[in-house]
Amino acid sequence: MTSNKRFALIAGARPNFMKIAPIIKAMERYREIEVCLIHTGQHYDKNLSDVFFQELGIRKPDIALGVGSGSHAKQTAEVMVAIESLLVEAQEQGKPFTAVIVVGDVNSTMAAALAATKLHVPVVHVEAGLRSRDRSMPEEINRLVTDSISDLLLCSEPAGVENLLAEGHLQENVHLVGNVMIDTLMSEVARAKEQNTLMEFGLEPRKYGVVTLHRPGNVDQKETLEAILQVLSKVSVHLPIVFPVHPRTRSRIEQFGLQDILGSSTGCRLVEPLGYLDCLCLTSQAKVVVTDSGGLQEESTALGVPCLTLRPNTERPITCSQGTGTLIGNSAELLDLKLQEVLNDRYKIGSCPLLWDGQAALRIVAVLAQRYL
Ligand code: UD1
């Protein structure tokens, strides 16, 4: 007699939620699979967490760890301790997990992977193999650690596969499955465009820019943040800008006393972090996206919207080689130049990468079924 296979699916922070939504749905198609959804609580604000569950129809987590904010070590350690204890409990109750599935590159991803592998529970990493080669980014450390201890590595773009093979992973453990976040985008974009978001912000389609900014490398030093805000202020004279401000960025702007830079510019509107549908409504109809977010780089490419990436490197190279992305670093001149290209309709046209087709979750679960059922 075969019993059901139990998988723990881990989500912790905002960019994880749009990745787990289609995976849960695809897993629920298999009668032999049981999913235990675990929310670590790394993000806990309503607009960084709850709104995504509501809008994407993600069911209530089976277990909420409530870990919250803290230093990297504290946050990582607390997730590890909590995951370890629930994996041990499951073993003691005779209901062990077949594997733990982690997505993306946040602290919760790495912490859950570490706790599981030490208990000999296999780890599946969705969005494996991405490398920025920039070890000053906490996410790069999370990616390196998670991939090095994962048993099954599922990649969103060919560079991920190449990186993993070059690092010595066995081909049989590495699969190109496509981009699961784009599954969510494709299933929600029509509904998103029906939102009133543009009207609420007084914007017209293709006549505004969307800005997001939250990487420590861009917002934690006063000089860097100040220079970026100055450019945005200049740009917003020609092109209205909506800037949903991440809590980290808002607190840095206040701490460094930089409120007046954008406050004095009428074209730039600072708003609270947006839910999924409002955000997609805005980005899908924007003239340009200016961001340091990994997710928005990919979403812009899938939507065919120019994306000026405020980073010196990207772990998602296909967004620049094939998609609509351009790396700007923190160069005010380059940002200005590329914005002019966009405004004059001279900016490059990208195309949507292979397997960013809305079916990635089905391929992910097919790989799981092949390996574990
Ligand atoms: C995390 C991820 C990053 C991801 C981002 C999306 C890591 C290392 N980083 O960064 O990869 O792109 O999420 O947002 O995992 N805070 C709140 N409310 C919350 C959560 C956080 O106000 O619900 C504030 C706290 O002051 C906290 C700070 O934001 O200290 C940073 O939160 P944290 O989860 O540590 O990292 P993010 O910068 O959000």
Write structural notes for this entry.
Helix content is 47%, strand content 14%. It has 373 residues and is of the alpha/beta class. The strands form two sheets. A seven-stranded parallel sheet has the order 3-2-1-4-5-6-7, sandwiched between helices. A six-stranded parallel sheet has the order 10-9-8-11-12-13, sandwiched between helices. Strand 1, helix 1 (14-27) and strand 2 (33-39) form a beta-alpha-beta unit. Helix 1 (14-27) runs parallel beside helix 2, helix 1 (14-27) crosses helix 17 (360-372) and helix 10 (222-235) packs parallel to helix 16. The chain is globular. It starts with a strand and ends with a helix. The structure holds uridine-diphosphate-N-acetylglucosamine.
